[in-house]
Amino acid sequence: MSAPLYKIKVGNVSVTIWENQGRDFTTQSFQVQKNYQQKDGEWKSTNSFKASELQYVILACEEALRWKYLKNDKPIDDVPV
Questions:
Q1: Is residue 65 situated within a structural domain?
Q2: What is the separation of C-alpha 12 from the centre of its chain, rounded to a whole number of angstroms?
Q3: Domain assignment present for 11
Q4: For the chain, what is the domain count?
Q5: Which structural domain, as residue segments, surrounds residue 40?
Q6: What is the pLDDT along the chain (81 residues), one digit of tens a residue?
Protein backbone atom coordinates (compact mmCIF):
# COMPACT_ATOMS: atom_id res chain seq x y z
CA MET A 1 0.00 0.00 0.00
CA SER A 2 1.30 3.44 -0.83
CA ALA A 3 1.90 6.16 1.71
CA PRO A 4 -0.75 8.83 2.26
CA LEU A 5 -0.31 12.23 0.65
CA TYR A 6 -1.03 14.09 3.85
CA LYS A 7 -2.44 13.50 7.33
CA ILE A 8 -4.17 16.04 9.53
CA LYS A 9 -4.76 15.45 13.23
CA VAL A 10 -7.05 17.46 15.50
CA GLY A 11 -7.49 16.05 18.98
CA ASN A 12 -8.09 12.32 18.58
CA VAL A 13 -9.53 12.75 15.04
CA SER A 14 -7.47 12.41 11.89
CA VAL A 15 -8.10 12.89 8.19
CA THR A 16 -5.79 10.92 5.92
CA ILE A 17 -5.58 12.00 2.29
CA TRP A 18 -4.81 9.34 -0.31
CA GLU A 19 -4.06 9.74 -4.00
CA ASN A 20 -6.06 7.64 -6.45
CA GLN A 21 -4.79 7.15 -10.00
CA GLY A 22 -7.39 6.54 -12.68
CA ARG A 23 -6.71 5.77 -16.31
CA ASP A 24 -6.95 9.43 -17.36
CA PHE A 25 -7.07 11.28 -14.06
CA THR A 26 -5.73 11.60 -10.54
CA THR A 27 -7.94 12.39 -7.56
CA GLN A 28 -7.77 12.24 -3.79
CA SER A 29 -9.85 10.37 -1.24
CA PHE A 30 -10.26 11.40 2.38
CA GLN A 31 -10.48 8.99 5.30
CA VAL A 32 -11.82 10.32 8.63
CA GLN A 33 -11.24 8.32 11.80
CA LYS A 34 -10.53 8.62 15.48
CA ASN A 35 -8.03 6.69 17.54
CA TYR A 36 -8.71 5.63 21.09
CA GLN A 37 -7.08 3.45 23.71
CA GLN A 38 -9.01 0.63 25.32
CA LYS A 39 -8.79 -0.16 29.04
CA ASP A 40 -6.29 -2.95 28.30
CA GLY A 41 -3.99 -0.42 26.60
CA GLU A 42 -4.66 -1.57 23.04
CA TRP A 43 -5.13 1.21 20.46
CA LYS A 44 -8.13 1.03 18.11
CA SER A 45 -9.62 3.25 15.43
CA THR A 46 -13.21 3.90 14.41
CA ASN A 47 -15.23 6.16 12.14
CA SER A 48 -17.93 6.68 14.78
CA PHE A 49 -17.86 9.90 16.78
CA LYS A 50 -19.46 11.30 19.93
CA ALA A 51 -21.25 14.64 19.66
CA SER A 52 -18.44 16.23 21.67
CA GLU A 53 -15.91 15.09 19.02
CA LEU A 54 -17.73 16.61 16.05
CA GLN A 55 -15.86 19.89 16.51
CA TYR A 56 -12.62 17.99 15.85
CA VAL A 57 -14.14 16.29 12.80
CA ILE A 58 -15.22 19.65 11.39
CA LEU A 59 -11.85 21.31 12.00
CA ALA A 60 -9.91 18.38 10.53
CA CYS A 61 -12.18 18.25 7.44
CA GLU A 62 -11.90 22.01 6.92
CA GLU A 63 -8.12 21.72 7.07
CA ALA A 64 -8.20 18.81 4.58
CA LEU A 65 -10.32 20.86 2.19
CA ARG A 66 -7.97 23.83 2.57
CA TRP A 67 -4.99 21.54 1.88
CA LYS A 68 -6.63 20.15 -1.26
CA TYR A 69 -7.40 23.53 -2.76
CA LEU A 70 -4.10 25.15 -1.81
CA LYS A 71 -2.19 22.11 -3.11
CA ASN A 72 -3.95 22.49 -6.44
CA ASP A 73 -3.20 26.24 -6.52
CA LYS A 74 -6.89 27.16 -6.45
CA PRO A 75 -7.95 30.13 -4.33
CA ILE A 76 -9.70 29.01 -1.17
CA ASP A 77 -12.58 31.38 -2.12
CA ASP A 78 -13.32 29.06 -5.08
CA VAL A 79 -14.19 26.14 -2.80
CA PRO A 80 -17.67 24.90 -3.78
CA VAL A 81 -20.30 24.83 -1.02
A1: yes
A2: 12
A3: yes
A4: 1
A5: 6-76
A6: 678 899 999 999 999 999 988 889 888 899 999 999 999 999 999 999 999 999 999 999 999 999 988 876 554 454 444
